[in-house]
Amino acid sequence: MVKTFIFAQNQKRKFISVIQRLQTVFLALASLLNLSVYFTPIYDKAMADPQAWIGYGLAVSLMIPMIMNVVCIFLYQNRKNQIVWVKRTALVQVIAFAFGVGVLLSLGGVGTYLWDEALGTGLIALGLILEILALRYIRKDEELVRSMDRIR
Known about the structure:
Blueprint: H1 2-20, H2 22-37, H3 41-48, H4 52-73, H5 79-106, H6 115-151
Helix pairs in contact: 2-4, 2-6, 3-4, 3-6, 4-5, 5-6
């Protein structure tokens, strides 16, 4: 029973150390922002488009980074691998942003009447910014670990 308790405490500490990292917050928020785009008018307009590939392209290009961000959160023990996957996620997020801008511009230009649709595209852009910030903080962690290794 004592070993089980110690194991549970170690697992709890690992989970808390994941939450304490700022890049974890950025990646989680980016996933939530991608999820929220599904409830905006830009997604509805994309799915109502006669060209079905536009709606499905937006849906898939939002779903992939959302899942990959959650996976990247749990790659915290291997920062180099985490950096590679966050870069790949950001690339797919750029594709989602391109789909969002394409749908927005296909609605007849940019004006105040498209405020709700622009908000959905802005959420995609904000998710991309959060992924870039997470990448930056992961690199800072990696540099900190390297400097500590040099001191030893």
